[in-house]
């Protein structure tokens, strides 16, 4: 069973797309210089998190400048780069998409946010579906040393998705995310830790750094949680790289001692389908 180093990059996001792309590249270089073999970026790292802006910042695969940068940097550094998310245009539809590139710069996976963040809360109204389309596919990436399941932000609130990815054999759930000042203090740690405990996998979530002047103020506090639910690394609110060791032996040990996945009563759950 192997070990690897995972870096989670909490980065500043501005209205200047070029600045965001260059800044992300520089931060990924810094993360790799700390020994990271897998690097995770935040949700909407090249674009302010404002639904009305997504179509203007959107780009297509493979020609878009952001995806080109991600592919080049992954190859140059020989890392697996889980490229946060960006607005991706495909025909008439814009998706909230995470591109994952491998050590040679090839595309290993593409996750389009499945559950769009449409909520009306006190002090927070967001309707992602006003400018985005939902993804339809589960994303499991074979990163060589481990298997990665990708979810984007609101996806993490749907335990069914994390469970399906765990049953597909992923060792870690990597989550570009952008919780806010309403939901973050209440649910960020709780949700990330629960998905780790439920499924006995590592969970890592990357947020943009907090910008108090932004229209949508992100929570920050990017984190890595181990399969026992322990927070092994956590950022504050500013730009920061956190690095954690992922040990696949820890997954095996936790599952052996507390065999949750093996003790599921699927015979009964099947009866509940009607
Ligand atoms: N931004 C999101 O997609 C989700 C979020 O902020 C939350 O679930 O809270």
What does this molecule look like?
The structure is a single chain. The protein is of the alpha/beta class. It has one domain (3-257): Carbon-nitrogen hydrolase (Nitrilase/N-carbamoyl-D-aminoacid amidohydrolase, 4-Layer Sandwich), CATH 3.60.110. The protein is 27% helix and 27% strand. The chain has helices at residues 17-33, 54-57, 65-77, 159-167, 184-199, 248-257, 266-271, and strands at 3-10, 38-40, 80-82, 86-90, 93-101, 107-112, 118-121, 124-127, 140-142, 147-150, 172-176, 202-206, 223-225, 231-234, 240-247. The strands form 3 sheets. Strands 1, 2, 3, 4, 5, 6 and 15 form a 7-stranded mixed sheet that branches. Strands 9-10-11-12-13-14 form a 6-stranded mixed sheet, with helices on one face. A two-stranded antiparallel sheet has the order 7-8. Helix 1 packs parallel to helix 3 (65-77). The longest helix has 17 residues, at 17-33. It starts with a strand and ends with a helix. 47% of the residues are buried. The model has no long low-confidence stretch (mean pLDDT 97). Bound molecules: the ligand NC(=O)CC(=O)C(=O)O. Ligand LQR7VSFR is lined by residues 117, 153-154, 157, 178-180, 183, 187. One of its GO terms (biological process) is oxaloacetate metabolic process. Pfam families: CN_hydrolase (PF00795). Its EC number is 3.5.1.111. InterPro entries: C-N_Hydrolase, C-N_Hydrolase_sf, Nit1/2_C-N_Hydrolase. Residues 4-248 form the CN hydrolase domain.
